[in-house]
Amino acid sequence: xxxxxxxxxxxxxKNGNTSYLVKWFCEGACAKGAQVEVVNTxxxxxxxxxxxxxxxxxxTAKYECVIDDEAKPVLARxxxxxxxxxxxxxxxxxxSAQLKLVMDRxxxxxxxxxxxxxxxxxxxxxxxxxxxxxxxxIGLDTLEKSFAITADYSGMKFASLLVPDAGESGDxxxxxxxxxxxxxxxxxxx
Length: 190
Ligand SMILES: Cc1cc2nc3c(=O)[nH]c(=O)nc-3n(C[C@H](O)[C@H](O)[C@H](O)COP(=O)(O)O)c2cc1C
Description:
- The chain is α/β, with parallel strands linked by helices and 190 residues long.
- It has one domain: Flavodoxin domain (Rossmann fold, 3-Layer(aba) Sandwich).
- It has helices at 17-31, 71-78, 97-103, 140-154, 178-189, and strands at 4-9, 35-40, 83-89, 111-113, 118-120, 127-133, 157-163.
- The strands form 2 sheets. A 5-stranded parallel sheet has the order 2-1-3-6-7, sandwiched between helices. It has a two-stranded antiparallel sheet with strand order 4-5.
- Helix 1 packs across helix 5.
- The longest helix is centred in the N-terminal third of the chain and has 15 residues, at 17-31.
- The structure holds flavin mononucleotide (FMN).
- Flavin mononucleotide binds next to helix 1.
């Protein structure tokens, strides 16, 4: 069966390095027959500045964010796909705020029972992929670690591609091996 892949791209630059990583990854995944959807989290219309910690999602059995905006159906689709890809430029040694706007609202995709000390999530068994580019090779490992811990906590498999030496828009095209590695990763997880 064709794998379903949801790509969240968190760069405000439409033709930036992140967009190349996404394009190449999708090229690989589509070549293997995957169904791929790409959402740029920088251009969704939001009703809140990220997760507002209202905890309303914890009061219902549904894995659903109560904030009714363009991020809500994207979050719902995360529960239905096989692979979730998060693509981000490195911003101050972390993911971009544009990606975090959606990421933090993934709180609604977990149910915690603190008394029983249990957690349940439909993300379990899926694969999380991190694609990231940066100007220099400092901090990409920190970013990767935060995503790897999230994947582990959620019972997800994890894969990543980190590309330094990409500062200006499109510089990534000149980084040796970046395109090949992104296509290969797309093929691998599809
Ligand atoms: C707000 C901001 C913060 C950044 N912080 C870092 C950083 O901490 N380390 C780094 O190497 N590059 C940093 N950069 C550079 C970007 O990570 C790099 O140019 C990336 O490839 C941009 O991807 P894009 O073209 O998809 O936007 C920063 C850029 C911006 C705009």
